[in-house]
Structures are given as C-alpha cells and as structure tokens.
Amino acid sequence: MPLYPRAERILVIKLGALGDFVQACGPFAAIRTHHGDARITLLTTRPYAEFAAASPWFDEVWIDDKPRLTQPLRVLALRRRLRQGGFSRVYDLQTSDRSSFYFRLMGRDVPWSGIAPGCSHPHANPRRDFMHTVERQKEQLAAAGIAQVPAPDFSWVRADPSAFGLTGSFVLLCPGGAPHRPAKRWPVENFAALAVGLAQRGVTPVLLGTDKEKAAIAAIRTACPQAVDLAERTGFLDIVALARAARAAVGNDTGPMHLIAAGGCSAVVLFSHESDPALCAPRGTVTVLRRPHLAELSVLDVEQALGQL
Length: 309
Description:
- By secondary structure, the chain is α/β, with parallel strands linked by helices.
- It has helices spanning 18-23, 25-34, 46-54, 72-84, 97-106, 133-143, 188-200, 214-223, 236-245, 255-262, 277-280, 299-307; strands at residues 9-13, 39-44, 60-63, 89-92, 112-114, 121-122, 170-174, 204-207, 228-229, 248-252, 267-271, 286-290.
- The strands form 2 sheets. The protein has a 6-stranded parallel sheet, sandwiched between helices. A 6-stranded parallel sheet has the order 9-8-7-10-11-12, with helices on both faces.
C-alpha cells in the first residue's frame, strides 16, 4: 500500500543550471501553494538535490542521472520510475528536449505543463524564447491554472555564515564563469584591483568559486592578501547565508550571482555580448553593467556601481 494513498502526487522537473534553478524557486513555491495537500516530487540533477531537499517546497527529491539513448537499460529504469510514480500532474520547468522526451516516457496521458508536443497544458507563446526566464515561467504556470508566482524567498535557509570566521564588513566576489565561455568573465586583474580597493577601505573581499576558479582566485589573493578564499568551501545554503550578511556582491553572469541576489544581497552583475540580461539577469537589488567585451569595463565603473548600492 502506498505511504500516501490519498494524496495527490505532483512531479516538478528542473534539472539545472544554477541560475535557472534559482529562478525556478518562485514557481516551486507557487506550485506548493496551489497543491497544498499534495505530495510533490522534484526531479533534478545531483548538484541541486541537497538545496531542494532542505526547502519547504518538496516532499521528496529524485536525482536524474540523465541517461543517454545509448543506455537503454537506464532509460527503461527511468521510464519505469516515472510511470510508477502515480503522478496526477507534471510541471516541466526545464522545458528542454530532454524533459519533453520524459513526457513520451510517461505515456502522454498525464496532465503536463511544458512544451512537449501533445501535452495538456502547453506554453504555446511563439516568443517564449525571447522572454526573461521569470516572465516565461509565470506565463507557463498561468496557462496551467497557477496565477500567482512569488519571487524566490529563502527565509527558510538556516546556514550560519559565522562558520567562516568573517567579521566586519565584507563584499562577495565571484570571478568565475563557464570555462567554455571565457568572454563572460571580467579580467582577473580587474577583480584583483577591485579587491585591493575594497581592502584599502576596510572592506574584506570574500572570494567564491569552484576548483575551476583556483588560478583566478590565487591571482586575486596574490594581489590582495586580505581577501578571504572560500572557493570549494560553500554549498548553496552557505552562499545564501553569506549573501544575507554581505554588504554587496560583484560577479560575472554566473549561477552563484543569482543565488546571492535572490538571497537579498545588493549585487553588481557583469555582462558581455555573450549573454543578454533582458533574458537572464538575476532578479533582486541588481545593477547590471554590460559591455560588448568585458575588458572594456573599468574597475572605476564597477566601484561607482558599488557606491550607488
């Protein structure tokens, strides 16, 4: 007998990436409110499972290892799991070819919000790809009967920023970005100069990143030994907690800046020709600085934007 025999069962699909996942947190909350008594499952990828499981939006989190078509046994195992889930509604917030394929795996008869051909609640706006992610998802949910979508609210996060030993005023710096898109990154020497200027004013630069940013962060710390290196030491919950305590943040168009802005931190986000802030800029107290090439963006420009926050 199922553990929840009378509960409506809802599946939400959101696989990544981080910025997109953060911008889906308002829709997650809206789905939770709309289906208050339902048992809601999130299908996501491994990097987002811990954050999602800690949130108030889901009763369970399934990890999708994204099997390839050349792995038929794994595809069949996913198909079986989806079909045996007993879902009465699916909200596909990924709206990709992969997630639309899952509609076919489930058999096409489950009520489905997304863009899969033949689904019951399609987001059919032909200009959906020219909408900001936030507005696009609001319109998608409205077509499925959910009229109110709030901004992300991370008040439930309980992580403690004092665990990192930070005292006094600090500014978060995110010098990283997608390794395969170097044009989205402000030159590391500019981040270093910004860090030096902050330290001279008694503000601690705090560097966030992954192992892919090790070289950039080492270069910044060489120029500014007062900078605090938290690369590879922060999970998503930690970043939200740090955002609450920070004076401000500066970073490239990269996932952590979405998390920081949604966490309530005033943020300066740097864009090049590689991405369009009209479609994907973080929401919150955000100042967007854009140049065709980020090398054209001066340290003074960024310092002035910080001064206006």
